[in-house]
Each structure stands twice: as C-alpha cells, then as structure tokens.
C-alpha cells in the first residue's frame, strides 16, 4: 500500500490553519463604521443664492465617508423630509451579497417614508473612489450626495505614490426646486428647467449669469448685479506644499452636465478610474461625466509665490453656465487670494473628438492590474439609445422600450415569487441595426414596460450601446452606469456598430474596468461583464434631468405605480437571477 498520503494531509491541515489565521487577522482589522444621518431640507447658499437643499445632518453635499478595503459601513438613515420619500445608493459599491442595500427605490427597496428609519449595511470590498446619492425621483439634484473613499489596507502597495490626498466633488446646480424641475418634465407641454445656474466644486460656487461672466469689465446689465452674501468668492480648493504630490479623487455627480476639470498650470496624471488602476495618462484637463470618478496625481511644482485657478466647465452641451472656479494656493499665500491670471475659459464645448480620444486613452488597465477578460460572451445585447414618442409624450427608451417601475420593487417580487408584479415578457435584445439610420430622428413609436432582462448566474454578457440622433435631431453624450457590477470597457466606436465587423476591434488584452461609461454622440460603446452578483440591478443613463433646450425632447417617465409625479430618466434595467432569489 502506498503510504505518502499522511504527510500530504498534514500539509493540507497546516495550510488550512495558516489560511484561517490569515483570514482571522484580516477580519480582526476590518472595522465597522457607523453613521447616523438625518435627511432634511435646510436653506443653503451653495452658489451664494439661497435655496432649499436636501441635506445630511444639515450639510450639502454630505460628509465624505472614509473606510479601508474590507470594512463594513453601516448608515442609519432617518427621513426627516416630512413630505418626501428617500433612498440612498452607494454608487460604485457592488453590494456583493447585499443587494438589499443598493438603495434604488423601486428596484431593491421600498422608499424610506417620511418619519421612517432604514439602515444600510454593506462591505466595501475594493479600494477606490466612490459616491453616494439619493436614488429616489430626482432628489439627487436637490443636493443629497457625497463621496465614499475606500483606501487600500496598510502594507498593500498601489501602483503609484503620493504625499497626500483630497476629494473633489463636481456638481451642477439649479435655483428652481427639484419639484419644479420634475413637474416641468412631466408637464404637457413640457417645461424644461434649462441649463444649470451654477457649477459647484465641493459644494461651493458663485452664481453669475453666463453673459456677465463674458462681459470683461462689469456690465450695466441689471441681471449682472447679483446680490451676494458677504464673503461670497471662489472657494479654496486646497493649499499645496511645494514639491509634494497630491492624489485628487475627482468625481462628478452632475444632473445634466458633462464637465472638463483642470488646474491652471498643473498637468494631471490619471491613475484610477471608478476604483480600478488605469495605465497612467498625463492630461492637461480631465473630461468627466456624471457618475465617473478619477484619481489624478498633481505635483505642486509651479511658482509657489502665487495661487492658481481650478475650474470646471460645461462641455457636450452648448455652454450657458458660468464655469466654476476654486483656488489652489501654495503654502504661505492667502488661500483666498485670486490668482493674478484671468479665469480660464476651458476647451470648446463641442470638441467631440478630444473627448472621445481621452475616453479611449483612459480605457487601458495598469499593466500590473489587468483583470483577464472572458474571451467571448454567452449573450450579447445591442441597445439602441434614443427617444421615442409614447402616448404623445417624448421618452427615452432602449430598443423602443421605456422603463417604468412597477408598484412593488423588483427585488421584493422576485424574492417573494410574486406573479404578475412586473411585465414578464423580456425586452428586445437588439434592434434593426441593418436598416436603422442613426443620423435621422427615430421614426418608431415606443412602448412603456416594466420588463427586465434576466441573466443566467455566472454568464458573460456583452452590452453594446448605440447612440443616435434624438427627436430634436441632436445626439448627446450619455454616461451609462451599471449597478452591482463593474464591466470591461472593450471599445468606443464612431457611427453604427456592426457586430460582424466591429467585435474584432474589442480590446480583449488589457481593458480597464469601470462602472460608468460614456456613450458619445453618434457613436457606440461596448462593455462586457460577468453576471455573478445575484440581485436586481439598474443599468441607466446617469443624466437625471435630460431634456433638450428647445423644449421638445424629454427624458420623462412619470413614477407610474409609485403614485409620484416625479420624472426620471431610466433607459434600462437588468436582473441577475439567482435560484435563491425566487
Ligand atoms: Cu449613481 Cu443608479 O446611480
């Protein structure tokens, strides 16, 4: 009889012991972070003009949550809005094993009613730069948002070094209430709130009508004499110590605007996108779409005797909002002293080529952090992103179907096995890509449905988003965000995607992973993901108030079934089905 079994078994036992000791030491270090939040309206003057904002413990934006990979975050939310529901989404956190904490009202949970309390509990499993924001109606636009930063554990090296880090949250801001915006979207005829009054950097801005910002030496125009609260001026960004390198975690939670962010005189090295290490790329300015986050390294290597402008500018829509300014100061200077140079004007708003090129250059993983892509999909969905006329209204739709949430959140009906709680017929997986003309406004009538795509657990799924011109003959940029998963960004293409020709262009060697990706005008974007996280997950354009300037387009979906008149733009919905969920 052969005998060498025993040493092997002993070895296995020792290994097991070592492993469990290692696991123990990790879990002993993992912390639980408790936060208690009161959500309430307060008067705020974020851009020096007073307005009601939805706040967290009186603040808008809310506090940055800091944690380390593997930690647990517990947030107890008290809804003190009196007449309004709420729900909070943790954007970029995949919620592995915790789909009930995703915070998408109508999908993973019922709304948190006025006076009610709901506790979110989830693990932050991966380092990176993330967000949180309201996911009920258009409430995010009212100021309920903030950043969530997950650090790598001590002793785990990242593929770059820096001295200190700062967070930079970019937003757009309207003076009209979120109710006026939402009701306007749902009205017939539609009332569009228009371009934002201000852009905010870390929740601060200075309102100034756009035309006034361009009239150099003051103007006799009464509209330009904006009453301002005392001390209203471009806010400090941070104070840099000469020679130090700063990691800036920059995120955008705009409602409508695509942005360009830059710091005068300082280039930026992009090192992280949506929580993944990217092949470093040096840029003068960063294009950033709603729902995206980046870490950029900035070295304080300029003349330290003066301050510098940091700015965010609207791109992709005709600029009609004064750019936001903040001040990067060097140690020893007055941090509020305006730089001696004129305010930067930013790139041309309509330079699509520059934006697509930057998207492409930032779609490659860091060479030491390539996560292998499955070589082929089990299922490929070709999704036409456009508007349709539905029942006399203009709605955004995917393959002709505009999503409406059912009365019962999907996750609840699936878990309880409720029959008929949502449309059972699956939505179309493709569109007539051979004959469809993306240069012409969509001809077809669409439908509204609560149908979902059901994906087999563990399957590999390709999503190819196809942009077109909408009913107003324009093709816009749509940032698409997937809940519950990250996807590999395989390609950004121009024109119409042809499955036979264009799949050969997919980057299967070293694509970066993301959770939000831009779909550029008249182009297509291809991503791949593994459906390995049971739950019901939204896939949607992250533009919250999506209507067109000329008043006849509209991303309008009344909260049918929820009995709320809030309009919302959701172009799609996905579900990953686990047998355990039904
Ligand atoms: Cu940040 Cu469903 O979104």
TrEMBL record:
<dbReference type="InterPro" id="IPR008972">
    <property type="entry name" value="Cupredoxin"/>
</dbReference>
<protein>
    <recommendedName>
        <fullName>L-ascorbate oxidase</fullName>
    </recommendedName>
</protein>
<dbReference type="InterPro" id="IPR045087">
    <property type="entry name" value="Cu-oxidase_fam"/>
</dbReference>
<dbReference type="InterPro" id="IPR011707">
    <property type="entry name" value="Cu-oxidase-like_N"/>
</dbReference>
<keyword id="KW-0732">Signal</keyword>
<dbReference type="Pfam" id="PF00394">
    <property type="entry name" value="Cu-oxidase"/>
</dbReference>
<feature type="signal peptide">
    <location>
        <begin position="1"/>
        <end position="30"/>
    </location>
</feature>
<dbReference type="Pfam" id="PF07731">
    <property type="entry name" value="Cu-oxidase_2"/>
</dbReference>
<comment type="similarity">
    <text>Belongs to the multicopper oxidase family.</text>
</comment>
<dbReference type="GO" id="GO:0005507">
    <property type="term" value="F:copper ion binding"/>
</dbReference>
<dbReference type="GO" id="GO:0005576">
    <property type="term" value="C:extracellular region"/>
</dbReference>
<dbReference type="GO" id="GO:0016491">
    <property type="term" value="F:oxidoreductase activity"/>
</dbReference>
<dbReference type="InterPro" id="IPR017760">
    <property type="entry name" value="L-ascorbate_oxidase_pln"/>
</dbReference>
<dbReference type="InterPro" id="IPR001117">
    <property type="entry name" value="Cu-oxidase_2nd"/>
</dbReference>
<feature type="domain" description="Plastocyanin-like">
    <location>
        <begin position="165"/>
        <end position="333"/>
    </location>
</feature>
<dbReference type="Pfam" id="PF07732">
    <property type="entry name" value="Cu-oxidase_3"/>
</dbReference>
<feature type="domain" description="Plastocyanin-like">
    <location>
        <begin position="443"/>
        <end position="547"/>
    </location>
</feature>
<feature type="domain" description="Plastocyanin-like">
    <location>
        <begin position="42"/>
        <end position="153"/>
    </location>
</feature>
<dbReference type="InterPro" id="IPR011706">
    <property type="entry name" value="Cu-oxidase_C"/>
</dbReference>
């Amino acid at each position: 009889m052969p005998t060498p079994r025993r040493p092997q078994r002993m070895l296995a036992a020792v290994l097991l012991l070592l492993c469990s000791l290692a696991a123990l030491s990790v879990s002993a270090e993992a912390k639980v972070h408790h936060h208690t939040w009161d959500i309430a309206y307060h008067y705020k003057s974020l851009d020096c003009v007073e307005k009601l904002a939805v706040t967290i413990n009186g603040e808008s934006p809310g506090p940055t949550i800091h944690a380390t990979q593997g930690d647990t975050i517990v947030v107890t939310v008290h809804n003190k809005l009196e007449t309004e529901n709420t729900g909070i989404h943790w954007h970029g956190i995949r919620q592995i094993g915790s789909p009930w904490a995703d915070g998408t009202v109508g999908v993973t949970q019922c709304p948190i009613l006025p006076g009610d309390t709901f506790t979110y509990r989830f693990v932050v499993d991966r380092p990176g730069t993330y967000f949180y924001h309201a996911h009920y109606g258009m409430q995010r636009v009212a100021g309920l948002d903030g950043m969530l930063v997950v650090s790598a554990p001590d002793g785990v090296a990242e593929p770059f070094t820096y001295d200190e880090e700062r967070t930079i949250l970019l937003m757009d801001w309207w003076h009209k209430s979120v109710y006026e915006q939402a009701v306007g979207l749902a009205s017939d005829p539609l009332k569009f709130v228009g371009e934002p009054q201000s852009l905010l950097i870390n929740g601060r801005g200075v309102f100034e009508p756009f035309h006034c910002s361009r009239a150099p030496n003051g103007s006799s125009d009464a509209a330009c004499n904006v009453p301002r609260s005392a001390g209203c001026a471009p806010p400090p960004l941070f104070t840099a110590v000469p020679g130090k390198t700063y990691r800036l975690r920059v995120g955008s939670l705009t409602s409508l605007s695509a942005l360009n962010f830059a710091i005068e005189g300082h280039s930026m090295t992009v090192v992280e996108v949506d929580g993944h290490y990217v092949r470093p790329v040096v840029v003068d300015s960063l294009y950033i779409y709603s729902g995206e986050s980046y870490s950029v390294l900035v070295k304080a290597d300029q003349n330290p005797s003066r301050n510098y402008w940091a700015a965010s500018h609207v791109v992709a829509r005709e600029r009609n909002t004064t750019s936001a300014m903040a001040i990067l100061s060097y140690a020893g200077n007055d941090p509020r002293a305006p730089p001696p140079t004129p305010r930067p004007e930013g790139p041309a708003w309509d330079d699509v080529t520059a934006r697509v090129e930057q998207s492409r250059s930032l779609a490659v993983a860091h060479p030491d952090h390539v996560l292998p892509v499955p070589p082929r999909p089990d299922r490929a969905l070709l999704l036409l992103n456009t508007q349709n006329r539905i029942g006399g209204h203009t709605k955004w739709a995917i393959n002709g179907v505009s999503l409406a949430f059912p009365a019962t959140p999907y996750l609840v009906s699936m878990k309880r096995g409720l029959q008929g709680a949502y449309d059972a017929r699956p939505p179309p997986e493709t569109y007539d890509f051979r004959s469809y003309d993306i240069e012409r406004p969509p001809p077809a009538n669409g439908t509204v449905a609560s149908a979902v795509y059901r994906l087999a657990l563990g399957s590999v799924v390709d999503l190819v988003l196809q942009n077109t011109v909408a009913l107003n003959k324009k093709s816009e940029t749509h940032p698409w965000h997937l809940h519950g998963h990250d996807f590999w960004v395989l390609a950004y293409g121009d024109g119409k995607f042809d499955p036979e020709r264009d799949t050969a262009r997919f980057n299967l060697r070293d694509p970066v992973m993301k959770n939000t990706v831009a779909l550029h005008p008249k182009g297509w974007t291809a991503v791949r993901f593994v459906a390995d996280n049971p739950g019901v997950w939204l896939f949607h354009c992250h533009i919250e108030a999506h209507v067109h300037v000329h008043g006849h387009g509209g991303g309008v979906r009344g909260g049918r079934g929820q009995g709320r008149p809030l309009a919302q733009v959701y172009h799609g919905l996905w579900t990953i089905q686990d047998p355990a969920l039904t």
